[in-house]
Design brief:
Layout lengths: L23 H14 L4 H7 L15 H7 L1 E6 L7 E3 L2 E3 L1 H16 L8 E6 L5 H6 L5 E7 L2 H4 L3 E2 L4 E10 L16 E4 L4 H15 L6 E4 L6 H9 L5 E5 H7 L7 E18 L4 H14 L4 H9 L13 H18 L6 H12 L19 H5 L11 H20 L6 H14 L1 H10 L10 H13 L2 H29 L1
Parallel strand pairs: 1-4, 1-5, 8-9
Antiparallel strand pairs: 2-3, 5-11, 6-11, 7-10, 7-11
C-alpha cells in the first residue's frame, strides 16, 4: 500500500507473523532473571550502545590499555535476527546482551561511573568481520565465529563461549531424504564463502574426489544473508539444503515447520565459537577470557542468553509452491511488458508485488489499497502516475511500476549510489514514504553510517527510528528477488539442455 502509507504504518500486511509456541511461564521467569542481570544504567545505554560516533570508524590498532584510554571498544557484528538487531530504539540480540554485561563489568572494575568505556557496535557483512578487524576498524569481532586453523593464521580468538558444535545438514520440504554424508555427492548446497561451512565443504569435496565420487556443487550466497535468512529460504523451498551449526538449527527448527535436520550427517564436529581480535593483544585477551569463564554456555547467564532469543518475525512465503509458481509464470509477461519502458528490473518489481499481495489481484486492504501492487486509487490518479483503472490486473501492475519508477527518478537517481541501492531506497519509500526515507538518510552520517547504502547502513537508522517493518519489507523483497532469479536460472538451464 502506498500514498497514505506513511500515515498508516501500523496497518498489518497480508504476511502475518507466526508466533512461536513456547512455554510462557518459563520465558517470563527468564525475562525477570535477565532483567536483573542485564540492568546496566541508562547512561551506559545512551552513551555506549549506539553506533553514532564517526571517529569510531577511523582505523586504529592497539591493545586493551589503548582502548581504555580512548574510552572506546568497537564491536564488529553481523546484523542478524539472533545476535544483533534493532527494534525501534532498542538494540537487542545475544551478542548485544553479552556485550552489555561485559561493558557493565568492565566499567565497574575500572570504577567508571561518569565517563565510561563505550561499547560501539559496527554492523558489517560476515566477510568483512576479519578484514575490518585487521584493518583497525573494529577491536572485537563478535559474529559467532567458529575457530578454524585458517582463521587462526590471521587473528586470535578468546576461549570459546560454546564448544562441541557440530555442522549438520538441513534440508527443505522437497529435498529427498539422506542417509549418510555420502549422499551429498552430486548435490547442490548454497553457502557463504566466508563461512567455516565453506571450508569444510571444500574438504568434503576433496575426499569425494579421492574416492572417485561427484563433488558437491557449491553455490556462493550473498554475504548480506545470515544463516537465518538462508534457512528461511530452505524452509520455503527456495533452496534445497544448507549446512548449519547444530545449536542454531535446533533452535530455528522450533520456528520453521518445513525443515528437516540431519544431526547424524556431520561435516565438522568439536567446533568452538568465540570472539575474535587482532594478534598481539595479550591484555585484551586476558580481560575477555576472564569474562568468558563466567558467562559462557554452561554458566547461569550463558545458558539463559542462549535460551532467550525466541523472537516473533515475518517469514518468507513459499514462492516456489505450485500455486505460487503458476502465479509467477502467468504474470511474468505483464511485469516484463510494464517494466521495459522504464528500464526497470521486472524481477525486482515482481518481488515487490509478491511482498504486497502474494501476486493476488483480488487483494484489498482495510485502507483501500487495491490489487497486486496494493495501490490507493488516489495515488493511481496522481499526475505522476495517471493510470486510474487499477481494479484491472495490467493497469494495476503498470501503475505500481510507474510509481516506483517515479520514486526512483525523483528521489534516488543519485550517481553516488549503486543502482541496486537506488532501487532499494525506492522500495523502502514505497513502504514508508519518500519524505521519511529522506529524513532517515540525513541521520545516517551522525551515526557513522553511509546514507547511500541501505543494507547495514540506512536500514539500521530505519530500525531505530521507525521500527522493523520497513527493514523487514525491503529484506523480504530482496530475498524474493534472489528466489525469482534462481527460478529463472533454472528455467534457462533447462531450455539450454533441451
Amino acid at each position: 500500500m502506498i500514498g497514505s502509507r506513511y500515515m498508516d504504518m501500523l496497518i498489518p500486511k497480508s504476511q502475518k507473523p507466526r508466533w512461536l509456541a513456547c512455554l510462557v511461564l518459563l520465558t517470563w521467569v527468564l525475562f525477570l532473571i535477565l532483567s536483573t542481570a542485564l540492568g546496566a544504567s541508562q547512561e551506559l545505554e545512551n552513551q555506549g550502545f549506539n553506533p553514532k560516533f564517526p571517529q569510531a570508524l577511523k582505523p586504529w590498532t592497539g591493545d586493551w590499555d589503548g582502548m581504555v584510554t580512548r574510552n572506546q571498544i568497537r564491536v564488529l557484528v553481523p546484523f542478524s535476527k539472533t545476535f544483533y538487531f534493532l527494534d525501534g530504539g532498542r538494540q537487542r540480540g545475544l551478542t548485544y546482551d553479552l556485550m552489555k554485561i561485559f561493558a557493565k563489568q568492565i566499567n565497574e572494575e575500572l570504577q567508571r561511573k561518569i565517563v565510561q568505556v563505550q561499547f560501539i557496535f559496527i554492523p558489517v557483512n560476515r566477510d568483512e568481520l576479519i578484514p575490518n578487524l585487521l584493518n583497525g576498524v573494529g577491536d572485537i569481532a563478535a559474529g559467532a565465529l567458529t575457530i578454524t586453523p585458517e582463521r587462526k593464521k590471521l587473528i586470535d580468538f578468546s576461549d570459546p563461549f560454546l564448544t562441541n558444535v557440530r555442522e549438520i545438514i538441513v534440508t527443505g520440504p522437497s529435498s529427498p531424504p539422506l542417509s549418510s554424508v555420502d549422499d551429498l555427492a552430486g548435490k547442490t548446497i548454497h553457502v557463504r564463502k566466508s563461512s567455516s561451512f565453506y571450508e569444510h565443504l571444500v574438504r568434503l569435496n576433496d575426499s569425494f574426489t579421492t574416492a572417485g565420487k561427484p563433488e558437491v556443487t557449491l553455490i556462493s550466497e550473498e554475504e548480506n544473508l545470515e544463516d537465518e535468512d538462508l534457512l528461511e529460504m530452505v524452509n520455503a523451498g527456495l533452496l534445497p539444503m544448507l549446512v548449519m551449526d547444530n545449536y542454531k538449527a535446533e533452535f530455528w527448527a522450533n520456528i520453521f515447520e518445513h525443515i528437516r535436520l540431519y544431526p547424524d550427517i556431520i561435516l565438522n564436529t568439536g567446533g568452538e565459537i568465540a570472539w575474535a581480535f587482532r594478534k598481539n593483544s595479550p591484555k585484551l585477551k586476558r580481560v575477555i577470557n576472564r569474562f568468558v569463564s563466567k558467562n559462557k554456555k554452561g554458566t547461569l547467564i550463558g545458558n539463559m542468553l542462549f535460551t532467550r532469543y525466541l523472537k516473533n518475525t515475518k517469514y518468507v512465503e513459499n514462492a516456489l509452491a505450485t500455486q505460487e509458481r503458476k502465479k509467477f509464470q502467468n504474470l511474468m509477461h505483464v511485469f516484463k511488458k510494464t517494466a521495459r519502458p522504464y528500464g526497470f528490473d521486472w524481477v525486482l518489481a515482481m518481488a515487490l508485488g509478491y511482498q504486497e499481495s502474494t501476486l493476488d489481484q483480488r487483494k484489498r486492504s482495510a485502507a483501500g489499497a487495491i490489487g497486486v501492487m496494493q495501490l490507493l486509487p488516489s495515488t493511481a490518479r496522481d499526475p505522476n502516475v495517471n493510470i486510474p483503472n487499477i481494479i484491472q490486473l495490467e493497469p494495476n501492475i503498470h501503475a505500481g511500476v510507474k510509481y516506483l519508477h517515479f520514486l526512483h527518478d525523483r528521489y534516488f537517481k543519485d550517481p553516488k549510489m549503486s543502482l541496486l541501492n537506488q532501487w532499494l531506497f525506492a522500495i523502502a519509500s514505497y513502504n514508508a514514504g519518500p519524505a521519511r526515507i529522506a529524513k532517515l538518510r540525513t541521520k545516517a552520517p551522525s551515526m557513522g553510517l553511509n546514507p547511500n547504502q541501505w543494507f547495514k547502513n540506512v536500514e539500521i537508522v530505519a530500525a531505530k527510528h521507525i521500527g522493523r517493518e520497513t527493514v523487514q519489507y525491503v529484506s523480504n523483497i530482496y530475498k524474493y528477488f534472489i528466489a525469482y532469479r534462481l527460478i529463472l536460472e533454472k528455467e534457462e538451464k533447462k531450455s539450454t539442455v533441451q
